[in-house]
Amino acid sequence: MNRKKDIEQLFRQHYAKMYNLARCILSDDDESKDVVSEVFAQILADDVVLVPESEEGYLMRSVRNRCLNLIAHKSVKERVAKLLLDDADVILSEETDERLDRLMLLIEDLEPPIRQLIFRLRYLQEKSYQEVADEVGVSKVTVFNHLSKAMDWIKKQFKRARQ
């Protein structure tokens, strides 16, 4: 029981300094409090005997080391998360490439041929509705109608492929 009181006294005496050091290193209140608590929990669990002349140094070093370990652990977790995201991007990129290939094939199949031409001018050459209308020799409304029908047909083809 005397040991527990000694630890409580150490806690009261050094907590503020230990917390401030952890806060300085981690820049996070909750993590800093956790680190200080973990240091004292470890002292209790390992039955560490502290010499009064070096107890403050031991406590501060323990806090610093725990903070550095926490940062290193976070760094590893962040690197793993980044690698997983990069892998996901590659998978998504492959799926996107497949969809794009499928779209290009569907554009080739658009009927009537004027619809295919209008679609290509508008979406592949990025021309405005008016530019497409002028080039093909139709009204903007006709361009809109052909594009609307082309989009509906392409959507149906993609839905059919998923089923």
Automatic annotation (TrEMBL):
An annotated Gene Ontology molecular function: DNA binding
Keywords: Sigma factor, Transcription, Transcription regulation
Protein name according to UniProt: RNA polymerase
Similarity-based family: Belongs to the sigma-70 factor family. ECF subfamily.
An annotated GO BP: DNA-templated transcription initiation
Tree of life domain: Bacteria
Domain RNA polymerase sigma-70 region: residue ranges: 10-73
Originating species: Segatella copri
Chain ranges of the RNA polymerase sigma factor 70 region 4 type domain: 112-151
